[in-house]
Amino acid sequence: MKPFKYPTRMPNSWYAYVSEMMPFFTVNTLDQLLAYSSASGMLWVFHEGELIKTLRLWPGKALRDYRETALEGSRKGGVFSPFFGDLILDGDHADRFFLNYGNFRSGKKNYLYQFDLSGKLIQVYSISNHSRSIVQVKSKRDNKFYSINRNQFNNLTIMIYEEGKNE
Fold first, then answer.
1. Measuring CA to CA, which of 74, 107, 137, 138 is 20 to 30 A from 125?
2. Measured between alpha carbons, how far is 146 from 50 in angstroms, rounded to an integer?
3. Domain segments of the chain: what residues?
C-alpha cells in the first residue's frame, strides 16, 4: 500500500500526517479476527469470513494525550503522526482485548484500555514510562503484562508487570 498524506492544520503552520498503514490484526481464541484502525478508532470483528460487528472505540485519555502531543509538537515546530496504538488480546479472557494508546514519551504514563467484544470499557490500566525509557506492552496472560522497554540508547529489555501490583 502506498502511504498518503493527510494534512491537518495546526498552530504555527504545523502539520500532522496520517498514514493508511495503521491497522492492527489479531485472532482471539473464539476464532474471531479483530481488526483495529488506530487512525479512525474503528474495530471490526469477523467470524468465518463474515463481518459480525463494527465498533467505534476512541478512549478519552487517548484524545487528551493527542492534544498534549500536538501542542508540544507545534511549539517545537516538528511533525509527528499522533495516531498510534496497539491491539492486544487478553490471554485470560477470550472475549476481552486491550487498546494501547500509550504516550510513548519517556516520563509519561502508558494507558491500556480493556474492552469486551460489545465495546464496553471494562478497566483502564496504566504503566509509568520511566524517565529514560519507554514501555510498550505486548501481551497479557496469567494476570501478567509482558512488555518491551526501550531506553534512550534503543536497548530493549523485556519486563513483566503483575496485574494490580506494579506501577
1. 74
2. 32
3. 8-13+22-131
pLDDT digits over 19-78, tens only? 444 678 889 889 999 998 876 778 899 999 899 999 988 766 666 666 666 566 556 655
Torsion 166-146-85-71 (CA) sign: positive
26, 77, 100, 102 from 19: Cα distances, Å = 20, 20, 18, 18
Task: Give the model's pLDDT for residue 96.
Answer: 94
Instruction: Give the global pTM.
Output: 0.69
Q: For residues 13 and 123, which has the higher predicted lDDT (pLDDT)? A: 123
Angle among Cα 102, 107, 113 to the nearest 5 degrees reads 25
Cα(26)–Cα(163) distance, rounded to whole angstroms? 22
Q: What is the pLDDT of residue 165?
A: 56
